[in-house]
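ok so I'm stuck.
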Amino acid sequence: MDLETLNSVYDNEYLKINKILQELTGLWPFGSKKQNFIRRVIALSTLSIIIMPCLNALRVWCGKDLGICSENICGSLYVMACFSKYLVTVLNEGSLKILYEHVAAMWLSIKDPNEKELMIKYAKSGHLKTVGYCAYLGLAAVGFSQFTMYPVFLDIIKPLNGSRQKLLFVKAEYGVDPFEHYYKIYAAYCIATIVSALAFMAIDTTYTAIVHQNLGVFGVVRYRLRIATQIPPHDSQDYAYNTIVSAIKLHEKSLEFIKLIDSSYSILFLILILQCVIFMAFGMVTIMENMSEPIDLIRMVLFQIGVAVHLFYMNWPGQLVVNESSKIHLAAYQNQWYAIPERAKRLLKIMMIRTTRPSRLSAAGFYDMNFENYGSIIKSTLSYSAVLASFRE
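replied:
not stuck anymore, here's the structure
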């Protein structure tokens, strides 16, 4: 597929935001290699630098102060999650390139107006999730970064005889006096927050949008199975048989699509799940340690909620894949199958057998991305938090 045709698909109203975010972060595989390289160096360098104070704090405080140690573990895990997600995406560029081309080819292959309407319906749903997630991450990034400026704002609005104690992004070891260089450190963390938020937006929303493209294909398969059993005004025997054949072929393509998505993102999912579990476990300990400090407590609670929301967002498409693929099995027999010829009925039987097990997305085969497993992770995290809390002095 030539670049102009591919860009025409990704420049439509449903995928344009995803493409822009990928270009901004240097992750668009069809963009300028020079620009991508520069943006990738900036992103990875920023994340590498910003994690150093947290790692240094772990070296200093490990075994001495569980609260500070937990906070810096959380800070390190956040940066590592963003770094690993970004790096895996860069290293997986070849597979993602094939995946993006597959999305464009599938979009262009659907010509029937009714089928196109179904594709657009699911594309709109993916677009809505993209906009909502970007708005949420933007507000979360601004809120988290500006919380540390609360004492500074109060000094301006309601000054005291002396300045209020400033709040640090993380109680880390910076190698310099963090209060003497407060605004420099604050600026550095603001830049890192922007970089990390854009990386999460670009990767997560593109994954969601791509999955929704395949959900649209599932919808088209169901539509073809439904109309195949409706007696048309012309030769119904050939019509039913040919329509079911086209549905089966499209279903095979959709299954290949799911496998391609799974292979492109499964390692990323596994890393994400492990880091989120550890983060939330230590995050709960940090919350317990900051009960006497309201601002830090609010920030950590919001951060903890943010990680849970992020994990929910990544499991959501996986649950939708299960739901929508299960509907194909129902569509194979909830129709007027008795009105079609025998050879068409045999195809429906094959389709029913093939769709008995729903499609799924997994984290390298160890974890299925769905709401049930998401709930299990949250429960497990609470158990791990209780164990860690028992080590508090």
